[in-house]
């Protein structure tokens, strides 16, 4: 059931309800859980997606039969491990991280998950390193969770390198509640929304901070 309040954004979830649902659906998965817990232990910013959002990313990858995935913004590797969990055994995921310390922690977690040969952590700047990944495409999934002021650029890259039926996913689509503010990051994020809507089949899923899901059109 929904009502006008919940449709407008009011949440029924509270921390205990979220913890119960995260625990039932995701909590037992030790590999990704270590990566989820790593930022606190390693004194990194704990800015990864939630446990259930990570699982959603993996399920979406599974739904499109993903074999080639690109992620921008690795942090400790939690979302990369969840996304890769939705790929076939022969799949590969490339994830770009600009902070060397975060990349090192991610590599450790990816090794712990037994996914070293299926996930490549690419050190460097998001926009610059994407150019170097083009030869591996076209891709089934592009997940953007990086510097917010360049989301429009990341969205354009994804459109050029996703296969028909491939999906673009973008975290923080509400921009921490600042989507409608002035400034370069809100403007870039609004452009990312508008261009996804103009060129793909898109929706902003009302996760806590919004998740754009956009599917590349298939010729009919
Ligand atoms: C921040 C970045 C994110 O991608 C996120 O999901 C939450 C916070 C940040 O930069 O603060
Ligand atoms: Mg994010």
Distance between the termini: 35 Å
Q: Which structural class should the secondary elements be placed in?
A: alpha/beta
Strand content is 15-25%
For the largest beta sheet, what order do the strands appear in spatially? Answer: 3-2-1-4-5-7-6
Counting H and I runs of at least 4 residues, what is the number of helices? 9
What helical percentage do the residues reach?
A: 40-55%
Report on the biggest sheet: 7 strands, mixed
Radius of gyration, in angstroms, nearest whole number: 17 Å
Global morphology: globular
Residue runs with pLDDT of under 50 for 5 or more positions: none
Total number of β-strand segments?
Answer: 7
Bound molecules: 3,4-dihydroxybenzoic acid, magnesium ion
Mean pLDDT: 95
Query: What is the H/E string?
Result: HHHHEHEHEHEHEHEE
Secondary-structure blueprint:
Layout: H1 4-7, H2 15-27, H3 30-41, H4 51-63, E1 68-72, H5 78-85, E2 92-97, H6 100-112, E3 119-123, H7 126-133, E4 139-144, H8 151-161, E5 162-171, H9 184-199, E6 201-205, E7 211-215
Parallel strand pairs: 1-2, 1-4, 2-3, 4-5
Antiparallel strand pairs: 5-7, 6-7
């Amino acid at each position: 059931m929904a009502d006008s309040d919940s449709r407008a954004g009011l949440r029924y979830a509270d921390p205990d309800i979220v913890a119960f649902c995260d625990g039932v659906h995701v909590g037992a998965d030790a590999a990704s859980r270590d990566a989820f817990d790593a930022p606190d232990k390693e004194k990194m910013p704990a800015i990864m997606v939630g446990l259930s959002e990570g699982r959603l990313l993996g399920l979406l990858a599974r739904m499109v039969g993903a074999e080639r995935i690109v992620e921008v913004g690795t942090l400790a590797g939690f979302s990369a491990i969840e996304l890769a969990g939705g790929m076939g055994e022969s799949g590969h995921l490339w994830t770009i991280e600009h902070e060397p310390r975060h990349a090192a922690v991610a590599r450790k977690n990816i090794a712990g998950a037994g996914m070293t040969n299926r996930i490549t952590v690419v050190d460097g700047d998001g926009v610059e390193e994407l150019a170097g990944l083009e030869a591996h495409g076209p891709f089934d999934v592009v997940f953007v969770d990086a510097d917010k002021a360049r989301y429009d650029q990341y969205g354009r890259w994804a459109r050029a390198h996703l296969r028909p039926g491939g999906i673009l996913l973008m975290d923080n689509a509400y921009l921490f509640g600042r989507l409608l503010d002035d400034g370069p990051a809100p403007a870039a994020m609004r452009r990312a929304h508008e261009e996804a809507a103009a060129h793909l089949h898109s929706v902003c899923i009302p996760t806590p901070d919004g998740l754009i899901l956009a599917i590349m059109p298939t010729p009919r």
